[in-house]
Amino acid sequence: MSPHLRIGVALLLPFAACGVQWLLWDDWIKPYVWFMFFPVAFASAWLGGLVAGIGSTLISALLVWYVFMAQQFSFALQKPSSALSIVLFVGMGCLFSWFHERLRRALRSSVSRFEATFEQAAVGIAMVGADGRFQRVNRRLCAIVGYAPDELMALTFQDITHPDDLEADLDYVHRALAGEIDSYAMEKRYFRKDGSLVWINLSVALTRKPDGAPDYFIAVIEDISGRKLAEQRFRQLFEQAPVALSTSAHDGRVLLMNRAFTELFGYRLADTPTVADWQARVLDGAGPDAASQPDGWQAHQRAPLVEQAVLCRDGSRKTVLLSRIQLGDEMMLAAVDISTRKAAEEEVRHRNDELERFNRASIDRELQMILLKRQVNALAAELGRAPPYDLSFADAEPRRGAP
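RESULT FIELD:
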C-alpha cells in the first residue's frame, strides 16, 4: 500500500467509526463519546504515521464534538469538562502519532541498514528454509555461483552442493533441526551455473520462531577458491620437493611429512605424531656422541642451520643439515642428507694424511742420503781422492726472500 493511500484510509477511519458508534449509540455506547475513537486514533497513527494520525485525531475530535456531545449537531458545549476531554483526546492522539512515527522511522532505518548490509556485504549471504530452498540471496552469493537471484531461489542448496560434500552438510542440518547444535561451519564445494567448481567456507546458524520451532537458516558463504588453489600448489611443491620437509603446530604436533622426509628417516606420521617423538627416535637415538655435539638438538633450537647426526629407522646413522622455518603459527623442518659428502670429506682428509706421512718419509730419506754422501765425500778426502758426490745444492745458502 502506497503512503498516500495509507493516509487516505487513515483519514476515512473517523467517519467509519462515527457511523458505527451512531448505530450503537443509544443501546450500547452512550454516554462514552470517545469509545470508538481512541482505537481509531491509534490505528490511524499506526497506519499512516504522524500526518495521518494527527489528521485523524482532529477529524475525530470534531465529529465527537458535533455529533455526540451536548448539544448534539452543534459546536456549542454545555459543560467545561467536555472541552477538557476534547483537549485530552487531541493530546493523546498526537502522542500516539508521534510515538508511531518514531517507531516507523526506527523500523525504516533498521530495515534500510539490514538491506544495505545484506546486499553490499563482501561475502555471500542467504536465508535458507528448513527444506534447503533459498528464500533470499544477496548479490555476492549470486556472483560466487553465477546464478541470477530468481534462478538461485528456484533451487535448493542440495542442487548446487558437490555430492562428496553433501552428506556432511546434511548431517549438520539434521543436528541443528534436532536442537543438538545451533550453528556450524565447514568447507565445501558448490557447482557454479557453468558447471565449474568453487570452494567456499560456509557458516550457518539456525533461527527459531518464538515457540522454539525452526524458522530458517542464515548462511554466510565466503569464496576460498584462491586459498584452496594456493594450498594445492603448496601441497604439490611440498610433496615433490627433493628436500625432506615436515611441518608442526605450535603445540608440537607433526602435521605433515613429505615423501623425501619419510624416505630419509624411515618414519611416517603415525610413527612420530609429535616433534618430541621424532626427536627421541631420530636425534636422541643417535647416541651419546651425537648428544654431546655442540651442534646437537639444543643448538638446532637456536640456530637456523645446523649439522646433526641422526639414527634412522633401519638402524643406519646419517649426518644431515637441519633448518627450521617459521610459517605463521606453524614450524617447518627441512633436512638434507649430507652423509655422502661427509664420507667424501673424510676420505679426502684420510688421503691427505697419508700423503703428508709419505712426504715426510721421503724428506727423511733424502736427508739421510745427503748425510751418507757427506760421510763418503769426507772419507774420500781423507784418502786423497776427489769427492764422488756433488753436494753444492745442499751447501748453498738459501737466497734472501726464498722460502
